[in-house]
Each structure stands twice: as structure tokens, then as C-alpha cells.
Design brief:
The complex is a heterodimer of chains A (479) and B (454).
Chain A lengths: L3 H11 L4 E2 L2 H4 L15 E3 L4 H14 L3 E4 L16 E4 L6 E5 L4 E4 L5 H9 L3 E2 L12 H7 L6 H4 L6 E7 L5 E5 L14 H5 L8 E8 L1 E2 L3 E9 L2 H13 L6 E6 H10 L10 E9 L1 H17 L4 E5 L2 H12 L1 H4 L6 E4 L2 E2 L5 H14 L3 E7 L4 E8 L6 H18 L18 H4 L2 H14 L31
Parallel strand pairs in A: 2-4, 3-4
Antiparallel strand pairs in A: 1-2, 5-6, 6-10, 7-11, 8-9, 8-10, 12-14, 12-15, 13-14, 13-18, 16-19, 17-19, 18-19
Helix pairs in contact in A: 1-3, 8-10, 8-13, 13-14
Chain B lengths: L4 H6 L23 E6 L3 H14 L3 E4 L14 E6 L6 E5 L4 E5 L4 H8 L4 E2 L12 H7 L6 H4 L6 E8 L4 E5 L11 H5 L7 E9 L1 E2 L3 E9 L2 H11 L8 E6 H7 L2 H10 L4 E9 L1 H17 L4 E5 L1 H13 L10 E6 L5 H11 L7 E5 L4 E6 L10 H17 L3 E6 L2 H4 L12 H11 L15
Parallel strand pairs in B: 1-3, 2-3
Antiparallel strand pairs in B: 4-5, 5-9, 6-10, 7-8, 7-9, 11-13, 11-14, 12-13, 12-16, 15-17, 15-18, 16-17
The chains are: A alpha+beta (479), B alpha+beta (454).
Chain lengths: 479, 454
């Protein structure tokens, strides 16, 4: 347990009101979007880089482990205080510090919500491209830690492709700049790309205190197509046909019949009863390009077996087409009280095979599965539906989830496309990487955080690395 | 007496791997002759050589096409030059997955030729594509004229295998385009100048070859006007893939007949803005029209449009300009700056040049870069090192003031021995040094060439 003196020192840094240490108040910091939970011993909510520096410096001296937290939307346990210790919640560091229209960049604090940044940029005719499904809630700091993706990453890349510079605090509290985190950033800096390797390091290297991102001009025109297919198989063929034609749409998303049913339960979107899969394709660019490429997309949808194709151009109509996809996870509540969201990724051409494997695994484990996929990227999100009150259900789901990961790896893919390893997938890391590979990764963590005090117990399989963490939590972690 | 390096290597390398002494000169690094040079035809040999070198404390200088071998500080000594060009296989090409896996020694040109029948390409325009190897391009993180939209080599790298300083091969990333399984070491190795490991395999994501390509060339009465106009294009919805703005001196070296003609008509002090456009047929037509219209509105004196094949040749000549034997400058400096500062930085760099040594300029106002080139004649006879050094220091000040950096890419050896080509230590040098010690504990990989003495 933290000493009273430690808590008093934290209060002296951030103010009385911004330190949480009573167990009943700490409960809300126990969860994230994954099925893991663990209680931090103390939560602190700083409002400036200087406060973060002091908080980390104090924790370092006291030998307390530290984990950063944004909005807690992460799906792999990244923000879970696995060893108790101190959690830094960035909720109060939520200012957009500047937007440079000419250089098309913005500088934000880590607690800024992804969608708030995008909406802010749009007022200047710009946008922030990465759009994780949790974008209404997730923070930029969390996006950096997890290298977040989203539907539009198909054309524009993930968070790493849009971050130009970072100001980060290391485990001893020292503040350091990576890349070019200035008001007017530059594109290339000499030395190793520490910015690049920090992206997706899941809070184990440091915590970002300031983030400079690239913004993109808004496209002249956007057109969204929705193709309704008899089954997932033909929808996957359509994906291959579109990409094979040399078209990389802005987004290419798939939902299966279970999701369609769930969505229809909540709102009638007019999907026919025999809809086995829905493919959503967004094309954007110049008028002419959208027309030309749009026509090719539409033709490909029909040719590969779509029995209904809808198209929309106005913002309002497009929102209606996206409603099924965006509302997918929320609607699953109409089918089961809980779901476990997997994050497999395979080469695009293996997408149909991956869906077949997922169907097979869910049958074997007697689970209903609902599929929501970033099909264009080969990134599938099978949602395994369950009821946590049913004895053994969570265990069965965790086992089935591990099988899904293994199936994806066997198809030439990886464990996680965009959610991160965290606690959830760390034991599966040896499926993908050898001990030597993992040791190479560990060297980087040691270079940034020699004492491994930041977000310990994440990414690497248990027992793989020597963990010099002194301070352990009373509260355990369970999955 | 310890046996010589070549005789030690001969004990375990296949026959024919050692370069005979007359050939060593080709492997000199900044004038420093290696004690030995060898060809590593596969990753196993590469690993074995590195393990041996680590045990013996022999420095290893990995070598691809050698196009960027001048990049970096002058090494104290060169133990073994390890030529990896024999590792030039394409291992796996999946056009419909938009991915390719290759060995590190394949040339960019060869790779693009093998990709083309599948309708895909790797969007990198590194200089001397027929000579540059993929491993070398990654190690040097070399960019080309379309860096505004195509970014850096590390942006396309999704998987990598390297032989580290301990002679152990390790892997990171994978063959999928979206992947957060483990730390993104792709970013770390790309741009590390061979100081953390020798790249033996790389997997890239690819892009479809655009249906059409065109180039708009426009002359301006001054470099400033050209940069402002070119930069203006990059903020629009029909932004080009890249814009390069050349001053008269640089344009002259480019040897474009039409370009020369429009420049001649434009007169002295003029500049040439080149915008590269790609996309669907009607899309490109519209882009050409809009680009020409806007450039005209922003002061272009004359506008010429090149179609497909001519565009490709302009792109290649531009990429190769400062690297081909015929047009190689004796001094070149690459300055990075925020895009909005490019016009000012270019002007200040010109002012910063010592009398009698005005550089040729290529500005990239979309990406934020100004390249300065000093071609030897006609001033070489009386330009001495101290004048060059003064110019360099002033250019460095200009870059720093703009928040950027000035890296010396090419330089006379006599001067190079006196400077740090990287222009000082990055802020995070301590972490970089720790990384170097961990990945290369014996300090044998390309020692002394990178930032901060790494």
C-alpha cells in the first residue's frame, strides 16, 4: 500500500482534488475495454508536463510502478495497473495547443479525444485520419501508446504515419523530445527513429505529454457504397477483387449476418433477411476519381455476387450507410450480455479462410461469433458472445480467443492488428516470435526504461524477462 | 603473429567469397581502405562473419550498391567490408495482398521490374535505382522527389530480419499491412545506417501502379515565387504527389530539353517548379488542369505538361541528379525545415553562401526540405576548405533557426575530416547510445559513422 507520505507528496504536486486513493474511488480505474482488471493503489490526474515530470520523479524514487491511462477504451489491457502501483490518468491534459493551417499540423496534449481533434481540424478544412472505432472516447495519448488504427487506415496508415513528434516523460521523470514535437515540425531528424519505435510501445517506454500530428486536407468528394452479399465468402472475394483491381479505397469494412441481425434488432436499417454479409466501401478524392473508381467498385461488388448495392454521397446518406458498421458493437448487446473482441490480422487474400477458421473455432467452443472486419487490411474482429454469469464462459471465450490468434498466425498473419498485445496476448507472443526476437525487443525497452517501472507485466510473456519491479499490488490481475 | 583477416576469413567462408587485394579500393570508405572485403551470399554467412568479427573485435562495414557510402562521418579504420549484393532474391510477392518480401541486396530497379507484371510498385524513388540496394536504401532512409506523398522508406517497411552485432538473426513485424504485435523495430532499423544490424530480409507494403502519370513544369521569375506557388499546391484537395522547385543552376544540370527551353525564355534568375501527378485517367486530367491554372494564377511565366513516359524520365533524372557520376556535386547539404519556412530557408541559405560559391537549389516545399548543391566547376580552383566551412556553419545556423537540420551528404574528404556531417547530437542521444550498446555490444557495426560517434 502507498504510504500516507507518498500520497501527500502527490497531492502537493497536482493538488488535493486530483489524487485518488480510496478503494471505492479507485474502482473506476480498475477496468479498460478488455476483460482484464486490476486495481491501481493510487491514481493521479496531472494537468501539465511539469506535474507529470514531478509525479514520475517521485514514483521513481519510491520504487512505484506507473501506468498511463487515457479514457480506458483499450482492448488488450494496456491501461490496466497489472502490478497495482500508480496510475497517471491524462483526463485533465486535454487541450489542443495549436493548429498550423499552412503546415497542416496540430499540437495536442495526450488527453485530447481523437474525435475532438478531428472535428477541430475540420473547421480549418483539414482532418486527422486515424479513426479508431472508439474515437468518440479514446485519447491521443492512448492512440500513440497502442499505435491505434481504424477503418480509414486502409488508405492513410495507422497512428504512426501521422505523428511527427512527441514530448515524452521517461520512467525517472526526465522529459525528452522524439522526432519533431514543435509548433512547426520538420519531417526528418537525424539519429535513430525513436519517435517511430515509441509508437505502439504500449506505455512501457514512457508516457507522451505532448503530441504533434500531421493533418490532411479534406477530400473534394466522398462516396460510400454498401454491397449486400449472400455470405461472408463472397464478400471476401469482393474485397480481393477490389484490391486486385489496383483500387485502395479509403475504407473497406465487412459485417456478417450475426452483426446484421443485431443491428436490425436495434434499428431497422432495411437489410434484407437473407443478407449474409455487408461490405462497406468508401471512395474519396477528386470528383473525377470518385466517379471513375466508384464505378469500378460498384461493378466489382455486382460481379462478385452482391445482390443489392446502395450508394450515398451526401453526409447524411453516408452516415446512414455507416450506421450498421458504427453501431455494430453496441448492437451486440441485443444478442448477449458480453462479448470478447478479438483482433486477428491475416494477409488480405486469406480473409475468407480466416473467417472460416473463426466459424469453426466458435462452433467448437459452442460460442456465437459476430464478425466486424477491416476487410481491406485483412484485420478481422470476431466478437465472441457470452454471458459472464454463466460458469466457465469467460474461460471458454479466452481459450477460443487464443485459438483465433493461433489460426491467424498459421495463415501468415499476426496476433494483433491494432489493439495491442498488453496483458491479453502476451502469452501468445512465442507463436510469432522466437526468444531471440523477443530479446531484441526487450533491449529497446531496457534502453528507454532500464528499471522496467512503466506498465510492467505487459507485451512479453510472463517469466520471459527479469522484472526488477519492487512494488507489488495487493490486488491481483485476472482475466 | 596473428593471421591476417583475409586468411582468417578464408577458413570459414566459401571459396570465392574474398575480394582479392586489387579490388579492395572499390570498398574504401571515405578514402579508408578496408583490411579485407568479402561477399556474403546468404544470411547464414552474414551471421557467421559477424559472430567471428564480434569475437575478434573486427569492424564490419555492410555494403550494398555503395551509392550512399559517402553518407556519414569518416571512420577511424575499416576492418571488413561485407558486400551483400549476392543476397538479391525476391522471396515472396503477393500482388493481391500488396506485399513483397525480399533479401536486402536486391536493387530497387530489379525489384520494381519484378513487381510491375503484378501491377504493383514500391513507392520509393531512391537515387540510382539500378545500383541502390533495398537494404542500403532502408539503412540510409533515402528519399526521392515524391517524398511529400510517399514518405520515407520506413513508412513502407512492415517486416524485417537483421543480423545484429552479436551475429544473431532476429525478426520484427510480419507480412501483414497492419500489425502491432510487439514493438515496431522496423522503424528502429530503418535509418540506422547499419549500426544496429545488417538487413538480410525486408517485407514491404506496396501500392498499385497508378493508371496514369503526368508532370506539370512551370517557370517562375524567381526561386521564391516558385517555392511559394509549389507549396501552395500541396495544401489543396488535388495536391500533387510531389513538387520540386529548382533554381536555374539545378535545372541546367537536369538536362531537360523542354525544361531548358522554358527556362531560357524565362530569363536569368528564374526557377522551374515541377509537379508530379498520378491517378485515374480523368483524375489526372483534372489535376493537370487545376495545377496549371493555379500555377498560372500564382505567377508562372510558362507552363508545360509532360505525359507518362516523359514524366518517368523527369522523375528519374531528378532522383539521380546529385548522385550520378556526370552530375555529382562536390558538396551537397540537405536542409530540413517546416514546409512553410522552405522559401525563407532557401533564400537564407543562398545568402549564407560564401562569395563565389552560390549553390544550386532544389526545394521540396511540400515535405519541407531544401537541398543545396555545389558543382565543382567553375569555382573549384580557388574555393578552399575554410570558405566551404564558413558556408556550412552559416547554413547550419539557418537550419537551426527554422527548427530543422542540415546534413552534409557529399563533401571533399579534407573538409569532411574536420566536421560532423550530421550537424551535432540529437537530443535523445543517450537513449540512442544505449540502443547501440545493446544491439552491438562489441561496437563493430559501421562504427564511428553515425550521429554522436555511434
Amino acid at each position: 500500500m502507498p504510504t500516507e507520505q507518498f500520497i501527500q507528496q502527490l497531492k502537493a504536486i497536482v493538488g488535493e482534488a486530483h489524487v485518488v486513493s480510496h478503494p471505492e474511488d479507485l474502482v473506476v480505474f480498475e477496468y479498460d475495454g478488455s476483460v482484464a482488471k486490476a486495481m491501481p493503489e493510487t491514481v493521479v490526474l496531472p494537468e501539465s508536463t511539469e506535474q507529470v515530470r514531478q509525479v514520475l520523479g517521485l514514483a521513481y524514487e519510491e520504487g512505484v510502478s506507473v501506468v498511463g491511462r487515457g479514457s480506458g477504451t483499450g482492448l488488450s489491457g494496456g491501461a490496466i495497473a497489472a502490478t497495482g502501483g500508480l496510475q497517471i490518468a491524462f483526463t485533465r491534459m486535454n487541450r489542443i495547443l495549436g493548429l498550423d493551417r499552412e503546415n497542416r499540423t496540430a499540437m495536442v496534449e495526450p488527453g485530447v479525444i481523437n474525435l475532438d481533434l478531428d472535428n477541430y481540424a475540420r473547421k480549418s478544412g483539414l482532418r486527422y485520419a486515424p479513426d479508431p472505432s472508439s474515437q468518440r472516447a479514446c485519447t491521443m495519448g492512448g492512440n500513440v501508446a497502442e499505435n491505434a488504427g481504424g477503418p480509414h487506415c486502409l488508405a492513410y496508415g495507422t497512428t504512426t504515419n501521422h505523428v511527427l513528434g512527441l514530448e515524452v516523460a521517461l520512467e525517472d521523470g526526465s522529459i525528452i523530445n522524439l522526432g519533431s514535437p514543435s509548433e512547426q515540425p520538420v519531417n526528418a531528424t537525424s539519429g535513430y527513429d525513436l519517435r517511430g519505435v515509441f509508437l505502439g510501445s504500449e506505455g512501457t517506454f514512457g508516457v507522451a505529454t505532448r503530441i504533434v500530428v500531421r493533418l490532411l486536407p479534406l477530400p473534394e468528394r466522398v462516396k460510400t457504397f454498401l454491397g449486400i452479399f449472400p455470405d461472408v465468402e463472397s464478400a471476401c472475394t469482393s474485397v480481393s477483387a477490389i484490391i486486385g483491381h489496383g483500387i485502395v479505397p479509403a475504407a473497406l469494412e465487412l459485417i456478417d449476418s450475426v452483426v446484421i441481425k443485431a443491428v436490425q434488432n436495434v434499428t431497422d436499417l432495411g437489410y434484407p433477411d437473407n443478407a449474409g454479409a455487408v461490405l462497406l466501401v468508401e471512395v474519396e478524392g477528386l470528383e473525377e476519381e470518385v466517379e471513375e473508381i466508384g464505378a469500378q467498385v460498384e461493378a466489382a461488388l455486382w460481379e462478385t455476387g452482391a445482390f443489392q448495392v446502395r450508394a450515398a454521397e451526401s453526409a447524411q446518406e453516408r452516415v446512414a450507410l455507416w450506421a450498421g458498421r458504427k453501431g455494430a458493437l453496441g448492437a451486440l448487446g441485443s444478442l448477449a450480455p458480453n462479448y470478447y473482441l478479438a483482433d486477428g490480422v491475416v494477409p488480405r487474400t486469406q480473409l475468407a479462410a480466416a473467417h472460416r477458421q473463426v466459424a469453426h473455432i466458435s462452433q467448437e467452443y459452442k460460442l456465437t461469433v459476430a464478425n466486424v472486419s477491416h476487410a481491406g487490411d485483412g484485420n478481422l474482429h470476431p466478437c465472441l458472445l457470452f454471458n459472464e454469469r454463466e460458469p466457465g464462459a469467460l474461460q471458454r471465450v479466452a481459450e477460443a480467443g487464443a485459438e483465433v490468434m493461433k489460426a491467424c498466425v498459421d495463415l501468415g498473419g499476426a496476433l494483433t492488428g491494432e489493439h495491442g498485445v498488453g496483458l491479453e496476448k502476451k502469452e501468445q507472443m512465442p507463436l510469432v516470435f522466437s526468444d531471440d526476437d523477443l530479446k531484441a525487443m526487450l533491449r529497446v525497452r531496457e534502453a528507454f526504461a532500464p528499471l522496467n517501472r512503466l506498465n510492467p507485466e505487459k507485451v512479453f510473456p510472463g517469466g520471459f524477462a527479469y522484472q526488477p519491479t519492487a512494488h507489488r499490488a495487493g490486488a491481483g490481475m485476472f482475466i | 603473429m596473428t593471421p591476417s583477416l583475409p586468411s582468417q576469413l578464408a577458413k570459414f567462408l566459401p571459396i570465392g567469397s574474398l575480394i582479392p587485394p586489387p579490388g579492395l579500393e572499390d570498398y574504401a570508405v571515405d578514402g579508408v581502405m578496408p583490411q579485407a572485403a568479402a561477399l556474403a551470399y546468404n544470411r547464414e554467412d552474414t551471421a557467421e562473419v559477424v559472430r567471428w568479427a564480434a569475437a575478434q573485435g573486427v569492424s564490419v562495414f555492410p555494403r550494398g550498391g555503395g551509392t550512399q557510402v559517402a553518407l556519414g562521418n569518416v571512420p577511424a579504420e575499416v576492418g571488413l567490408a561485407l558486400d551483400v549484393r549476392g543476397q538479391d532474391r525476391l522471396l515472396d510477392y503477393q500482388p493481391d495482398d500488396l506485399t513483397v518480401t525480399v533479401e536486402g541486396g536486391i536493387s530497387l530497379g530489379q525489384l520494381q521490374r519484378e513487381l510491375a507484371p503484378g501491377g504493383k510498385f514500391l513507392p520509393l524513388e531512391a537515387p540510382l535505382a539500378e545500383t541502390s540496394t533495398v537494404g542500403g536504401i532502408l539503412a540510409a532512409n533515402t528519399t526521392g522527389p515524391l517524398r511529400f506523398s510517399h514518405g520515407q522508406p520506413r513508412d513502407w517497411l512492415i517486416g524485417i530480419s537483421v543480423v545484429g552485432g552479436d551475429g544473431v538473426e532476429t525478426r520484427a513485424g510480419g507480412k501483414v499491412v497492419k500489425n502491432v504485435t510487439g514493438y515496431d523495430l522496423n522503424k528502429l532499423y530503418a535509418g540506422s545506417l547499419g549500426t544496429l544490424g545488417i538487413i538480410v530480409e525486408a517485407t514491404f507494403k506496396l501500392a498499385p501502379i497508378p493508371a496514369e502519370m503526368a508532370t506539370v513544369l512551370a517557370s517562375f521569375s524567381s526561386l521564391q515565387e516558385g517555392i511559394v506557388a509549389g507549396g501552395g499546391l500541396t495544401g489543396t484537395a488535388f495536391a500533387p504527389n510531389g513538387v520540386q522547385v529548382l533554381d536555374g543552376q539545378a535545372a541546367h544540370r537536369l538536362q531537360l530539353e523542354e525544361g531548358q527551353e522554358i527556362l531560357r525564355q524565362a530569363g536569368a534568375g528564374s526557377a522551374l517548379a515541377i509537379a508530379f501527378l498520378a491517378g485515374s485517367p480523368r483524375g489526372v486530367k483534372r489535376r493537370v488542369d487545376e495545377t496549371a491554372r493555379l500555377l498560372g494564377q500564382w505567377g508562372a511565366l510558362d507552363v508545360t505538361v509532360f505525359q507518362e513516359s516523359e514524366s518517368q524520365s523527369v522523375l528519374e533524372s531528378l532522383a539521380d541528379l546529385s548522385w550520378s557520376d556526370e552530375t555529382k556535386p562536390y558538396l551537397s547539404i540537405r536542409v530540413t525545415a517546416p514546409p512553410s519556412a522552405v522559401a525563407a530557408v532557401a533564400a537564407q541559405c543562398l545568402e549564407a553562401s560564401s562569395p563565389g560559391m552560390a549553390p544550386g537549389v532544389i526545394a521540396d516545399p511540400g515535405y519541407g526540405m531544401v537541398q543545396l548543391f555545389w558543382w565543382a566547376e567553375p569555382v573549384s580552383e580557388w574555393v578552399d576548405d575554410s570558405l566551404i566551412l564558413e558556408t556550412l556553419l552559416r547554413v547550419r545556423r539557418v537550419a537551426r533557426k527554422a527548427g530543422g537540420q542540415a546534413v552534409v551528404e557529399q563533401c571533399p574528404l579534407s573538409l569532411k575530416k574536420q566536421i560532423d556531417v550530421w550537424g551535432g547530437q540529437p537530443e535523445a542521444i543517450e537513449i540512442m547510445r544505449r540502443l547501440k550498446r545493446k544491439f552491438d555490444p562489441a561496437g563493430i557495426l559501421n562504427p564511428g559513422r553515425f550521429v554522436g560517434g555511434i
